Inverse folding.
């Protein structure tokens, strides 16, 4: 199996430690590094720096938020990064959520899937070296009635893979129909069809198959003998996903857990969180909402979980380590993970 790590949150950590982690990840054989973008770090700056500090690991945005940039600028940025890292760049895109889009970016969170489709089409047009002429519902280029003209980007054409971070059924179908890869979150290999059935449906509608989409799935990692303590440490993060990663009416993470069979628990955790009863929300997170959405436990348990991910069709594990760990501890655990994966292949 391929592996990846996520880069982000260095606003709360020493940026040099974060960079060291990526460089060490390349050394031990990790395949991809994805730069996070929420309301802290941006997805671009880190990769530009890493392009000069690495030579093999693929560098991807995980993800660029489509509402934070116009599509042409996203294409220009992707082409620039791709040249900086000698063709190792992957463009990961996502729609984010209404709290960030409307609260921080000041853009209406309206028809996010349509906007995503238009972004992908414009970006691909620009990357092919064509003049950017587009007539969509939300993007019309050149802008009518003004002095703009159709412009071709001053870059050599490049075939940059586009991966989509999607969670809702219709967005997953679009991923299957149009994307080169999927950046999956809130995914359990024990309930893989909660996501993959929609990607498969979209792929088949476009004359493709699931094999045409590179499937990456986030996998929370914690290795140790005291399994109960490891599970307990993950409970707050799951509660935050269910209650805080979206509004009371729009939370794609919560919906994904519901489709996996945790509707009652996900709804109750969200209700308590939104009501400000966050300690109660954390306490009622079932163990299964932790253990079935990652690889937590002893080395033997971790190895078995990796095999289940592979059997579910996941090609690359996006390894998510506890942010409370020191960089040294993360590197040590990463080395242990890479050894365990040798037995999976």
């Amino acid at each position: 199996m391929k592996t990846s790590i996520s880069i982000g949150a260095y606003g709360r950590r020493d940026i040099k430690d974060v960079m060291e982690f990526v460089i060490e990840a390349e050394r031990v054989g990790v395949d991809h590094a994805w730069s996070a973008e929420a309301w802290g770090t941006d997805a671009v700056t880190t990769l530009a720096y890493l392009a000069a500090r690495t030579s093999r690991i693929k560098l991807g945005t995980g993800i660029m938020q489509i509402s934070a940039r116009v599509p042409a600028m996203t294409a220009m940025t992707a082409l620039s990064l791709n040249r900086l890292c000698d063709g190792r760049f992957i463009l990961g895109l996502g729609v984010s959520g209404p709290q960030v889009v409307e609260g921080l970016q000041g853009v209406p969170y309206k028809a996010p899937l349509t906007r995503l489709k238009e972004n992908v089409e414009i970006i691909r047009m620009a990357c092919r070296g064509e003049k950017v002429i587009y007539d969509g519902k939300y993007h019309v280029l050149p802008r009518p009635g003004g002095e703009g003209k159709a412009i071709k980007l001053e870059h050599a054409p490049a075939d940059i893979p586009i991966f989509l971070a999607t969670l809702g059924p219709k967005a997953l179908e679009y991923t299957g129909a149009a994307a080169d890869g999927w950046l999956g979150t809130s995914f359990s290999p024990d309930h893989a069809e909660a996501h993959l059935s929609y990607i498969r449906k979209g792929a088949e509608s476009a004359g493709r198959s699931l094999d045409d989409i590179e499937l990456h799935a986030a996998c929370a990692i914690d290795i140790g003998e005291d399994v109960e303590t490891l599970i307990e440490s993950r409970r707050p993060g799951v509660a935050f996903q269910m209650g805080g990663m979206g509004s009371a009416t729009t939370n794609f993470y919560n919906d994904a857990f519901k489709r996996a069979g945790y509707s009652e628990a996900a709804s109750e955790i969200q209700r308590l969180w939104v009501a400000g009863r966050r300690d109660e929300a954390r306490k009622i997170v079932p163990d299964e909402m932790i253990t079935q959405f990652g690889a937590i436990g002893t080395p033997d348990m971790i190895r078995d979980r990796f095999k289940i991910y592979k059997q579910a069709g996941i090609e690359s594990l996006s390894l998510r380590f506890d942010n409370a760990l020191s960089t040294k501890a993360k590197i040590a655990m990463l080395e242990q993970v890479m050894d365990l994966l040798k037995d999976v292949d």
